[in-house]
Specification:
about 60 residues; alpha+beta; two-stranded antiparallel ribbon; 2 helices; Antirestriction domain protein; Antirestriction_sf
Length: about 60
């Protein structure tokens, strides 16, 4: 999981100008398809192959 300071730079470093649209799309999809989802603190993970993974809150 990324340190709190690195969270602000994580998605922009991966997606550039598309990071806001990406975040909005992910959160919208969760709100629409996961009835128990009500927002929360997502975990960001960097993978060894250069990819990344977003983990929704464990309270879903």
């Amino acid at each position: 999981m990324k340190a709190p300071q690195a969270r602000l730079r994580f998605l922009p470093s991966k997606l550039g100008l598309y990071c806001i649209a990406f975040e909005n799309a992910i959160y919208h999809r969760m709100n629409r398809h996961a009835v128990a989802y009500h927002g929360g603190y997502w975990a960001f993970y960097q993978m060894s192959n250069g990819g990344f993974y977003l983990q929704p809150p464990k309270t879903i």
